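ok new one. same drill as before - structure tokens go in, u give me an amino acid for every spot. 80 of them this time. try not to just spam alanines like last time pls lmao
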């Protein structure tokens, strides 16, 4: 999946996370087991720390449910 520079600029503007950090996280996601709940929780906590956002237990559970049930939108560019 190729993302344009404008995508990274939008993400950076909203999250204050730069392109290199995003790419590093994407590599970690790619190498990790995205069907493992513990891996997902670690990644959610890492993203929360990077962005300075607190993720509630309820929201964390909802994210995990969405990922484990393949309900993640395919066109992420429209979400940003």
């Amino acid at each position: 999946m190729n993302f344009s520079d404008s995508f990274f600029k939008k993400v950076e503007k909203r999250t204050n996370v730069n392109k290199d950090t995003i790419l590093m996280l994407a590599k970690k996601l790619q190498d990790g087991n995205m069907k493992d709940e513990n891996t997902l929780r670690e990644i959610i906590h890492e993203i929360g720390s990077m962005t300075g956002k607190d993720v509630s237990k309820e929201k964390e559970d909802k994210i995990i449910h969405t990922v484990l049930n393949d309900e993640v939108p395919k066109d992420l560019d429209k979400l940003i």
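The chain has one domain: 5-79. and btw The mean pLDDT is 83.
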